[in-house]
């Protein structure tokens, strides 16, 4: 009954060459993720054309993706490089907390973003009066507070479980289910909390998103011209793509029964929403959004202009 003070993360138990290739891949993805999301935040903050509710919420999503990436990837790189690595109990609990809070916040924020698109398409004349700057800040703040507070209840209960003997987590990071499996004490309360937290944090937001896009599709289909329908739906296509990727990976691991999935497949799916989704999000919003393309072009042009001015002054 010796109390566990640290856990051993196994990561991928594969050949050294493959682990080093994965390490190089993930460190490139890590750098690109930070660069892409910081670029989105900077553009939204500095470009007047992007001072709208939709881009404000996109910048909040980028902040959440940065938190998630910094929380998961550095330790994952350590695990890959050393074929497994230990993590202190408190650090593991903290990693689990930031991970769960970031994912919960993203669920809520994607719901708010779907409501923003619903108002923009179904009630365009009232959009500016409904989605004011004050209302946007209140909704974003509510998502942050709710996301980081509702998860805290579960994290405290998990931290109070007894962990003894077995301390090997066959995963890439401190995740929900692998940690519960190692507990020596009864996990009934924790299991019930997962259901009670998951319902308002995942199921209800997903339902609201489906209802919102149902109304959006019906409103778009009522537009007489094909050009108008294409233009209306293009404003929410990027968000719909992000929502589809996010919820598909989350439901695959935590909602749909995973008895048929091997541990390796579960790890690969976990990589999708912890490593690759934060990279894909800014790419989707950048490549499929003309306003952000123009902001990037304008920022680059301004940077080149200032360099030319500084060079001429130095001469």
Question: How many beta-strand segments?
Answer: 3
The percent of residues in helical segments reads over 70%
Mean pLDDT: 83
**Radius of gyration, in angstroms, nearest whole number:** 22 Å
Arrangement of strands in the largest sheet: 2-1-3
Shape: globular
Strand content: under 5%
What pattern of helices and strands is seen along the backbone? EHHEHHHEHHHHH
How far apart are the first and last residues' alpha carbons, in Å?
Answer: 74 Å
Oligomer: single chain
Flag low-confidence runs: none
Helix/strand-derived class? mainly alpha
Number of helices: 10
Q: Tell me about the biggest sheet?
A: 3 strands, mixed
Question: How would you portray this structure in words?
Answer:
78% of the residues lie in helices and 3% in strands. It is mostly helical. 31% of the residues are buried.
Offer a quick outline of the entry.
The protein is mainly alpha-helical. It has helices at 16-46, 53-81, 89-122, 127-130, 133-159, 176-182, 188-221, 226-255, 263-287, 290-314, and strands spanning 6-9, 85-88, 168-169. The chain is globular and about 65 Å long.
Write a concise keyword list for the protein shown above.
3 strands, single chain, 10 helices, mainly alpha, three-stranded mixed beta sheet
Give me the secondary-structure topology:
Blueprint: E1 6-9, H1 16-46, H2 53-81, E2 85-88, H3 89-122, H4 127-130, H5 133-159, E3 168-169, H6 176-182, H7 188-221, H8 226-255, H9 263-287, H10 290-314
Parallel strand pairs: 1-3
Antiparallel strand pairs: 1-2
């Amino acid at each position: 009954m010796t109390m566990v003070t640290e856990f051993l993360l196994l990561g991928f138990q594969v050949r050294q060459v493959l682990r080093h290739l994965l390490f190089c891949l993930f460190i490139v993805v890590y750098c690109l993720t930070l660069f892409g999301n910081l670029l989105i935040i900077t553009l939204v903050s500095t470009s007047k054309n992007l001072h709208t509710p939709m881009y404000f919420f996109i910048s909040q999503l980028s902040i959440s993706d940065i938190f998630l990436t910094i929380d998961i990837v550095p330790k994952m790189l350590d695990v890959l490089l050393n074929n497994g690595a230990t993590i202190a109990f408190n650090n593991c609990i903290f990693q689990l907390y930031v991970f769960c809070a970031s994912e919960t916040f993203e669920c809520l924020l994607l719901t708010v973003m779907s409501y923003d698109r619903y108002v923009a398409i179904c009630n365009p004349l009232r959009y500016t009066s409904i989605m004011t700057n004050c209302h946007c800040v209140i909704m974003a703040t509510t998502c942050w507070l709710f996301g980081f507070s509702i998860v805290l209840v579960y994290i405290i209960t998990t931290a109070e479980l007894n962990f003894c003997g077995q301390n090997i987590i066959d995963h890439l990071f401190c995740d929900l289910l692998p940690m519960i499996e190692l507990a020596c004490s009864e996990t009934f309360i924790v299991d019930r909390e997962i259901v009670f937290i998951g319902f308002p944090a995942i199921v209800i937001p997903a339902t609201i998103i489906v209802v919102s896009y149902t109304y959006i599709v019906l409103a778009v289909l009522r537009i007489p011209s094909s050009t108008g329908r294409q233009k209306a739906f293009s404003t929410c296509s990027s968000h719909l793509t992000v929502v589809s990727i996010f919820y598909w990976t989350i439901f695959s691991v935590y909602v749909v029964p995973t008895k048929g999935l091997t541990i390796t497949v579960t790890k690969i799916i976990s990589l999708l929403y912890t490593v690759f989704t934060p990279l894909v999000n800014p790419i989707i919003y950048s490549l499929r959004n003309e306003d952000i393309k123009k902001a990037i072009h304008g920022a680059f042009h301004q940077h080149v202009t200032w360099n030319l001015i500084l060079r001429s002054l130095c001469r």
